[in-house]
Amino acid sequence: MPLELAQAMTVGGLNLYDLIFKSILQLHQCMGGSGWGCITGDLAHDFVYTLFIPHVVLILFLFIATRGLGHRGLETLLGIGVYVFIIYSGWYPFFATMTLLWLVISLFIAGFYFFWGRVIHPTRSRELFRLGFIQAKQKAERRKTEQALREDIEYLKKELEAARKENDRESIKAISRALTERELQLRELERSR
């Protein structure tokens, strides 16, 4: 740490830099080249990459994680309690290191929602969902109808064979008409896909 920084961060014999970054947040000196979630001695770097951005992400995470209790005071109390636990139990360096990954994932998700909102406007999304639901329902009904027609055709073919064996002309004519009618209905359904 430069001498000027050490003098600026010392108040009444207490080094604020060491107190905040090393004692309270329990951050370690950077060993690799990333500099993310560890201290370098450069106040600007350490403030932005190990204090400000990780705290913003941590506070957003806690805000999202503590919603749903139904009572605003309890949600706030739980958020503060978890925050203090993370800091004093030594989990903060882990969160500070994972902040980069979390931010990258969040940016991709936000970009997806942004571009998806440009393709399908949010006011139209409900209409498109309903339209898709109606089409899926119609498709399912069409499949049921096709299956019922195929079963009828198979049954009528068996009946026609039985009528031919008995040589019953009236039954053969009636069954042949019904069979032709069902086959035409099936072809029309297959064409309308």
What does this molecule look like?
This protein has helices spanning 3-8, 16-24, 43-65, 72-88, 92-119, 122-166, 169-191; strands spanning 10-11, 14-15. It is mostly helical. The protein has two domains: 3-119, no CATH class; 122-191. A hairpin with a 2-residue loop joins β1 and β2 (14-15). α3 (43-65) crosses α5 and α6 runs antiparallel to α7 (169-191). The protein is rod-shaped and about 115 Å long. The model has no long low-confidence stretch (mean pLDDT 81).
Task: Give the biggest sheet.
Answer: 2 strands, antiparallel
Radius of gyration: 36 Å
Helix content: over 70%
Classify the beta-strand content into a percent band.
Answer: under 5%
Order of helices and strands: HEEHHHHHH
Number of domain units: 2
Spans of at least 5 consecutive residues whose pLDDT stays below 50 are: none
3D shape: rod-shaped
Return the structural class: mainly alpha
**Termini gap:** 73 Å
Question: What characteristics describe this protein?
Answer:
7 helices; 193 residues; mainly alpha
In short:
The chain is mainly alpha-helical and 193 residues long.
Blueprint (SSEs and pairs):
Elements lengths: L2 H6 L1 E2 L2 E2 H9 L18 H23 L6 H17 L3 H28 L2 H45 L2 H23 L2
Antiparallel strand pairs: 1-2
